[in-house]
Design brief:
- The protein is an alpha+beta fold and about 160 residues long.
- It has one domain.
- The protein contains five helices and seven strands; from the N terminus they run H-H-E-E-E-E-E-E-H-E-H-H.
- Strand 2 and strand 3 form a beta hairpin.
- The chain starts with 5 loop residues before the first helix and ends with a helix.
């Protein structure tokens, strides 16, 4: 992923107001992020662990998604699988819920999926971060795992952006 600037990040959000995007906490160390190893930029709000954010460049469009998660102390002993990167964790996966974009989200409609609680899927699939759980052996190459992650992420982002029928 190409390095992002704070203005790029703030202007990319599709499921929150401009005021909310202006107030959200962006990590201070943007230049220090491992951009060359990221397929999307994700982080949890240090002031409220119930909030998370991800920004992805999908099909040439930078899209930011505001997420909500349960209290991070809940469910630490349960083994779970991230639906984006398919990494197994012992308590390191959270149900992340995103308001839908537009009027649908303003009416309370949302979509959710189970994601690595620290939003570091890219680092897990590259072996840059470990879960402490036995790793499933896969025959896919790293490029294929990245493609799968981006496909799953794209599906989730499209569900957030699409108005329900």
């Amino acid at each position: 992923m190409d390095p992002l600037t704070e203005p790029q990040i703030r202007s990319s959000f599709v499921n929150c107001t401009q005021g909310e995007a202006k107030r959200l906490k962006i990590p201070q160390a943007l230049p220090g992020q491992p951009w060359e190893h990221l397929d999307y930029f994700g982080w949890r709000d240090p002031q409220s662990t119930a909030r998370g954010y991800l920004v992805a460049d999908l099909d040439g469009t930078l899209t930011g998604i505001m997420l909500r998660a349960p209290d991070s102390t809940a469910g630490h002993a349960r083994k779970s699988l991230c639906t984006l990167c398919l990494t197994a964790h012992s308590g390191g996966v959270s149900l992340m819920v995103a308001p839908r974009a537009g009027k649908s989200g303003q009416r309370g409609n949302s979509v959710g999926t189970y994601i690595c609680a620290d939003l570091a899927c890219s680092l897990y699939i590259r072996g840059k971060r470990e879960t402490g759980t036995a790793v499933m052996h896969e025959t896919l190459t790293l490029d294929q795992r990245i493609e799968r992650l981006l496909g799953n992420l794209g599906d989730f982002v499209r569900r957030v952006r699409t108005q329900p029928a």
